């Protein structure tokens, strides 16, 4: 079987590489000639663990190739996947479908036999029907079916998610289209992966509903974290207590600075706009968006409070810039709100991220990007952990204390234990847990109170 994947960004490149690993002949297409030239040289334009090796092995096996020639790639394909970007449209928040519709028109002109056209991009309900209309308009006699096959890839673990997914959702309405999709995903049938066949509209909505639900869990636990701080509770224990309920589950109950990335922000917004247009508003998701926006703003205020309420003239070390570990994706990362707010308050920023600094440099000004975590902390008045990269989980605390001018750590990901940080001599602020002082400082304060009582 041969397929063409239109769009060689994150979803298209990962999907194409993984399909080729299944034994399918895959051509990845992109209009960006520079990107294609890089891919042809083996230079992967995004960071995703394992992707470089996967691409190299399948290129060597001649199952995976890259081109700017869309008509040539589509002409011989049994299925064509549309995997172009669908960013939020400026002004109204709707998904921008111009790239999807442009690809559909070009595909329509290029098909020469029965072809299954698959929307892999995240698109609002009704997009598949519109894609079919566009193709039918430019190719009235064309033999094709349109299918919706949303992706559920997590950045940082996308290859594993593709190879061993929780489920595959396929919106297809003819036996011929379902047969092609079954053949493509045959290796997953052998692994007994649940494969759900639905209508096109159902598949399109399932993607938005899934991401919006996960975003809701994140915003929920973040609000509970704030309540924990007011009541003296521990949000991590609360999360465990509710997550052990099989109806709730443990995942996405990690309090932090709010969600970001390429999916949750735009997908929640697109679902809200779709629901408003359908006169069936989703008030919960509207609230989730508001909670998350306020969350990012509050994180800068939290850092400032931890530094005594004023960061003017102070140097702050920021560890982690990408929206999550194991990716260089900066889209809607909390750091894009936190760092400018700290700079506006008068702070100087020294930052480090294992993979995200190149992208961050395009979006941030007046930030000193450092060679490693310890370099970022040299002479800083405090350090804030914004992204939970593994290398930040076991910092040499003795060394950290010697590098900081004051032993202050603001952990926005709760990767350390308060009692350990106190014992190590730090003033430690986290999320949904009470701040702790260095043990020696706490002991001195207690001794002073006891002396005064006597």
Question: Explain this structure to me?
Answer:
The N and C termini lie far apart (86 Å). The protein is built from 19 helices and 14 strands. A 6-stranded parallel beta sheet has the order 3-2-1-4-5-6, with helices on both faces. The protein has a 6-stranded parallel beta sheet with strand order 11-10-9-12-13-14. It has helices at residues 10-21, 33-40, 51-60, 70-75, 98-110, 127-138, 158-163, 175-184, 186-190, 200-231, 235-243, 264-277, 283-306, 335-344, 357-361, 373-377, 397-403, 418-423, 439-453, and strands spanning 2-6, 25-29, 64-67, 79-82, 115-119, 144-148, 168-171, 195-198, 315-319, 348-352, 367-369, 382-385, 408-411, 427-429.
Key words describing this protein structure:
disordered C terminus; six-stranded parallel sheet; 2 domains; 19 helices; Rossmann fold; alpha/beta
Q: Outline, from the CA principal axes?
A: elongated
Q: Share of helix among residues? A: 40-55%
CATH hierarchy class name of the largest domain: Alpha Beta
User: How many strands, what sense, and barrel or not for the largest sheet?
Assistant: 6 strands, parallel
Span of the ends, CA to CA:
86 Å
Approximately how much beta-strand content do the residues carry? 5-15%
Summarize this, please?
The protein is α/β, with parallel strands linked by helices and 454 residues long.
């Amino acid at each position: 079987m041969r397929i063409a994947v239109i769009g060689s960004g994150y979803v298209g490149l990962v999907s194409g590489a993984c399909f080729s690993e299944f034994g399918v002949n895959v051509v990845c297409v992109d209009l960006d000639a520079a990107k294609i030239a890089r891919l042809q040289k083996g230079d992967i334009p995004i960071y995703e663990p394992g992707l470089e090796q996967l691409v190299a092995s399948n290129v060597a096996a001649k199952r995976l190739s890259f081109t700017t020639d869309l008509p040539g790639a589509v002409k011989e394909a049994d299925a064509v996947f549309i995997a172009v970007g669908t960013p939020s449209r400026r002004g109204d928040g709707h998904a921008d479908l111009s790239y999807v519709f442009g690809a559909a028109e070009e595909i329509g002109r290029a098909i020469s036999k029965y072809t299954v056209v698959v929307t892999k991009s995240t698109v609002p309900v009704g997009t598949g029907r519109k894609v079919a209309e566009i193709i039918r308009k430019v190719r009235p006699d064309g033999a094709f079916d349109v299918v919706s096959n949303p992706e559920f890839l997590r950045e940082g673990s996308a290859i594993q998610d593709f190879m061993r997914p929780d489920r595959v959702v396929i919106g297809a309405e003819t036996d011929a289209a379902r047969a092609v999709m079954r053949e493509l995903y045959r290796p997953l049938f052998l692994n007994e992966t649940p494969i759900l066949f639905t209508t096109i509209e159902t598949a399109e909505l399932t993607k938005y509903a899934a991401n919006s639900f996960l975003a809701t869990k994140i915003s929920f636990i973040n609000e509970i974290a704030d309540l924990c701080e007011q009541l003296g509770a521990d949000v991590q224990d609360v999360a465990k207590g509710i997550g052990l309920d099989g109806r709730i589950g443990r995942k996405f109950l990690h309090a932090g600075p709010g969600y970001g990335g390429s999916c949750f922000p735009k997908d929640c917004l697109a679902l809200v706009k779709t629901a408003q247009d359908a006169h069936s508003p989703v008030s919960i998701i509207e609230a989730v968006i508001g909670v998350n926006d306020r969350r990012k703003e509050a994180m800068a205020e939290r850092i400032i409070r931890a530094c005594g309420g004023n960061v003017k003239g102070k140097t702050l070390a920021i560890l982690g810039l990408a929206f999550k570990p194991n990716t260089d994706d900066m889209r809607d990362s909390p750091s894009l709100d936190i760092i400018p707010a700290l700079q506006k308050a008068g702070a100087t920023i020294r930052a480090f991220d294992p993979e995200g600094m190149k992208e961050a440099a395009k979006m941030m000004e007046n930030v000193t990007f450092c060679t490693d975590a310890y370099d970022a902390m040299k002479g800083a008045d405090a350090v804030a952990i914004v992204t939970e990269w593994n290398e930040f989980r076991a910092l040499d605390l003795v060394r950290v204390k010697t590098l900081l001018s004051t032993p202050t750590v603001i952990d926005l990901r709760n990767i350390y234990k308060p009692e350990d940080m106190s014992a190590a001599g730090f003033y430690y602020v986290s999320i949904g847990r009470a701040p702790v002082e260095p043990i020696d400082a706490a002991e001195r304060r207690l001794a002073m109170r006891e002396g005064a009582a006597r």
